[in-house]
């Protein structure tokens, strides 16, 4: 079986094959200390402050990536559908950030003056470069893991026994919310539509950027747990 064939599963679904490909990455994400301790409410506040501040920086760049991807969509129907699902995700996350930034004493000036961590800087630059320089299908595949992995993680944590007084419950509620799930499902569906129209070479590139972005998702959470800063 050649690489282009491996980019689709037996049903012809690119996204099913892509999700299978990142199974080892997901296994590592699911046991990350940051997520485990966010789930049970024992995450140190300084770790969460670092994470949510970096996430605010990330979202600023991610929103621009979504706009670039939408502009490359092949028809108006996909442009509108993509913008709608992207808007849902951004609105939900902005609301979450606003609440947590206030709750954890992070001012707008703190966000403005903050410097991205090495992991945040690398991830956002990867996404922006892919969005600018790649086809619609490849660019779309690169932004999908953020939607899909957050949905998966949010659902998994939501289904665990709730911890009374968990300071991070709003995070769990956001990513376990049906509105966020609907946006993620729409982007998954659009990626499969794009993959069916893509060339074999494009599908290989789609798989490559999907895997890389998934690895960056792990790196982003892990770096927040370690309070990552620039070493020099």
UniProtKB/TrEMBL annotation:
Keywords noted in UniProt: Hydrolase, Thiamine biosynthesis
The protein's enzyme class: hydrolase
EC number: 3.5.99.2
Matches recorded under Gene3D superfamilies: Heme oxygenase-like
GO cellular component: a single term: cytosol
Pathway(s) of this molecule: Cofactor biosynthesis; thiamine diphosphate biosynthesis
Keyword Hydrolase: yes
One GO BP annotation of this record: thiamine diphosphate biosynthetic process
Occurrences of domain Thiaminase-2/PQQC (ranges): 32-226
Catalyzed reactions per annotation: 4-amino-5-aminomethyl-2-methylpyrimidine + H2O = 4-amino-5-hydroxymethyl-2-methylpyrimidine + NH4(+); thiamine + H2O = 5-(2-hydroxyethyl)-4-methylthiazole + 4-amino-5-hydroxymethyl-2-methylpyrimidine + H(+)
InterPro entries the record matches: Haem_Oase-like_multi-hlx, Thiaminase-2/PQQC, Thiaminase_II, Thiamine_Salvage_TenA
Entry superkingdom: Bacteria
Pfam entry (one): TENA_THI-4
PANTHER family, per the entry: BIFUNCTIONAL TH2 PROTEIN, SI:CH1073-67J19.1-RELATED
Primary role: Catalyzes an amino-pyrimidine hydrolysis reaction at the C5' of the pyrimidine moiety of thiamine compounds, a reaction that is part of a thiamine salvage pathway.
Family to which this protein belongs: Belongs to the TenA family.
Descriptive protein name: Aminopyrimidine aminohydrolase
Organism lineage string: Bacteria, Pseudomonadati, Pseudomonadota, Alphaproteobacteria, Hyphomicrobiales
């Amino acid at each position: 079986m050649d690489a282009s064939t491996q980019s689709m599963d037996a049903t012809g679904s690119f996204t099913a094959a892509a999700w299978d490909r990142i199974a080892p990455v997901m296994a590592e994400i699911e046991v990350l200390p940051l997520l485990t301790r966010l789930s049970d409410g024992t995450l140190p506040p300084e770790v969460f402050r670092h994470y949510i501040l970096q996430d605010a920086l990330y979202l600023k760049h991610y929103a621009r990536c979504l706009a670039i991807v939408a502009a490359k969509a092949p028809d108006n129907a996909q442009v509108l559908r993509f913008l709608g699902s992207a808007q849902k995700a951004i609105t939900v996350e902005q609301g979450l950030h606003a609440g947590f930034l206030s709750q954890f004493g992070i001012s707008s000036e703190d966000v403005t003056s903050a410097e991205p961590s090495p992991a945040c800087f690398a991830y956002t630059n990867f996404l922006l470069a892919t969005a600018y320089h790649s086809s619609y299908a490849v660019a779309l595949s690169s932004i999908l893991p953020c939607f899909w992995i957050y949905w998966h993680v949010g659902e998994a944590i939501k289904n665990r026994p709730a911890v009374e007084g968990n300071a991070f419950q709003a995070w769990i509620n956001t990513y376990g919310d049906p509105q966020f799930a609907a946006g993620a499902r729409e982007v998954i569906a659009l990626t499969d539509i794009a993959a069916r129209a893509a060339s074999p070479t494009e599908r290989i590139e789609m798989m490559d950027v999907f895997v890389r972005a998934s690895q960056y998702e792990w790196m982003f959470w892990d770096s927040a747990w370690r309070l990552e800063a620039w070493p020099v």
